[in-house]
Amino acid sequence: MCTTCGCAEGDTTIEGHTHDHSHEHNHHHGHALMATHAAGISPSRILKIEQDILSKNNAYASDNKDYFKEHGILALNLVSSPGSGKTTLLTRTLDHLKSEFRQAVVEGDQQTVLDADRIRATGVKAVQINTGKGCHLDAHMVGHALETLQPESNSLLFIENVGNLVCPASFDLGEACKVVILSVTEGEDKPLKYPDMFHAAELMLLNKVDLLPYLQFDVDQCIAYAQRVNPDITIIQVSATTGEGMEAWYQWLRNQHKSTLTDKQNQQ
Amino acid sequence: MHEMSLCEGVIQLIEQQASDQQFNKVNTVWLEIGALAGVEIEAMYFSFDAIAKGTIADAAKLKIIHVQGHAECPACKHQAQVSTRYELCTECGHYPLDILSGEEMRIKELEVQ
Q1: Rounded to two decimals, what is the model's pTM?
Q2: A201-207 and B79-82 strand pairing
Q3: Percentage of chain A modeled with pLDDT above 70
Q4: Does A158 have pLDDT greater than 60?
Q5: How many whole angstroms separate alpha carbon A119 and alpha carbon A160?
Q6: How many CB pairs under 8 A join A and B?
Q7: How many CB atoms lie within 10 A of CB A250?
Q8: Facing A170 at nearest CB: one of B4, B12, B38
Q9: Residues of chain A in Cβ contact (below 8 Å) with chain B
Q10: A68-254: CATH superfamily
């Protein structure tokens, strides 16, 4: 159990997080349970609660958001199904923007530090969260990862979520927005099959477009499905392997980063 | 299977309530879950029993109040029941519809001792 905020780690492990340092963000844990009641049977009563089940996660997310805002950090939550090419896309992005931005990565996977190793090979600092049996990152895990990672002010922070198009949709991590990556080797109807994720994302990167000549993937249909779930979604077609379309993604990042810095200045 | 995490969230909120409102046993937990909340109800029941074990809600009964999806068309103001986020207005074909209910994921009430 974490001695600072009292959190039980469960199956989750965070590289470099030993639970022996101070927290920067506030925790709202209420572990003081089992109030001292004398023996005896008290009558049952009904309590009206009306509390959102995700309220705890949302409180941590709001702490993370404040931290990002205060430090001018653009945090993006990258979500996709496994095998969409998320890590390849990320390493190419990090390499390309290395000279332009300070960058850091939080990697989420059930097991192994393989992805964090791939990120670190680009020279960008990364911390791996292994969720064990967990199918998504939550705001509390990310808060702990930030303590270890210490992303620099005015940097880009990429949070690569566990490969899963369902569960990460519900969990706010405090990010500026979710970026969903869909590859053309998947079905074009993914946006309709997993509408919550495409509804929650601001940007969709349609990856592996270099493979289109070999596939029966209807790009227009896919885009129409995504827009039906989310009419405001921005869509960029890319190939992380050949680099096709990547410049539009970099430009999108630059624009987002600029508005993060403007928000920081307005706050001061 | 994020229902496991959701149940952990439920238990944490109950523990907090237990210290705030002075109770030491939970008999029944009522949750309100909307049709558009992305929650698998069966998985909730399954996870709750597993997660509640050894906590203040051990042996508590979980009751889930299902909230139907309800939406209004921003163009023609027609209201209708919906089961997905991307349904078209049955009157004028417009989308997206404004969701009025169905996204709930709430602890509604507790029966405690």
Answers
A1: 0.87
A2: unpaired
A3: 87
A4: yes
A5: 11
A6: 117
A7: 14
A8: B38
A9: 29-35, 37, 41-57, 133-136, 138, 166-167, 169-171, 192, 195-196, 199, 228-231
A10: P-loop containing nucleotide triphosphate hydrolases (3.40.50.300)
* Structural domain of B73: 3-112
Domain tally, chain B: 1
Task: For residues B23 and A51, give the distance between their C-alpha atoms in angstroms, rounded to a whole number.
Answer: 18
What are the domain boundaries of chain A? Answer: 68-254
A166, B15: Cβ pair inside 8 Å? no
φ, ψ of residue A200 in degrees (nearest 5) = -80, -20
Query: From CA B21, how far away is CA B69, in angstroms rounded?
Result: 33
Calculate the CA B29 to chain-centre distance: 11
Longest dimension (CA), chain A: 75
- Identify the burial level of A38 via C-beta atoms within 10 angstroms of its C-beta, where 0-12 means exposed, 13-18 middle and 19 or more buried: exposed
How far is residue B40's CA from residue B66's CA, in Å, rounded to a whole number? 11
Question: Is 0.85 exceeded by the ipTM?
Answer: yes
Q: Quick one: closest CA in B to A232, which residue?
A: B96
pLDDT per residue over A200-242, tens digit each?
Answer: 999 999 999 999 999 999 999 999 999 999 999 999 999 999 9
Supply the DSSP symbol for A213. Answer: G
Q: Do A50 and B108 touch (CB under 8 A)?
A: yes
Q: From its phi and psi, is residue A116 left (phi > 0), alpha (psi between -120 and 50) or beta? A: alpha
Q: Which residues contact A39 (CB under 8 A, 6 or more apart)?
A: none
Separation of CA A197 from chain center: 12
Domain of residue B99, CATH code: 3.30.2320.80
The sign of the dihedral angle between the CA atoms of B51, B52, B53, B54 is: positive
